[in-house]
Design goal:
The chain contains 4 helices and 5 strands; from the N terminus they run H-E-E-H-E-H-E-H-E. It has 131 residues and is an alpha/beta fold. It has a single domain, classed as STAS domain (Transcription Regulator spoIIAA, 2-Layer Sandwich), CATH 3.30.750. A 5-stranded mixed beta sheet has the order 1-2-3-4-5. Helix 2 packs parallel to helix 3. The longest helix is centred in the last third of the chain and has 16 residues. It is globular, with a radius of gyration of 17 Å.
Length: 131
Amino acid sequence: MGGHDWPRWAKTRKTMVEEKERAMGLGPQLVLETTRIGSHDVIVVTGEIDLASAPKVESAIESFSGQPVVLDLRRVEFMDSAGLKVLLNQRSRLEESGGDLRLVVGEGAVVRLLELTGVSDAFSITSTIDE
C-alpha cells in the first residue's frame, strides 16, 4: 500500500486543472462552422457548450430567421444547462418566425441531457444530417 487510496469523489489533478482553465477562459475551445446542405443551413458545433461558450452558439443561431436551421451537435463533448437554455430559446424564436431548429445528435452527452431533462420531444432530433 505505497500509494494513496483516494475516495471516489476526489477530483483528479487533471480535472482541477481543466476547471481552473475553464474559469480563466483557457479551457476547451468551441468551434462553430456554418454551411449549407441542400435547402438547410447547418451549424456544426465542436467542443463544449457551457456558460462561457453558450452565447457563441446563441449568436450563430440568431443569425437565421424564418427558415429551418440544423444544429449538428455530434462533436459536442459536454453541454450544461446554459446550452440547453439556448437551444430551447432559439427553438421558440425560430418557430415564431416560421422556421424551426433541428438537432443532429449522436450517442453521448447531448442526447443524454435532452432525455434526462425531458425536452427531447420538443425538438426534431436525428442522428444524421440527411434524415
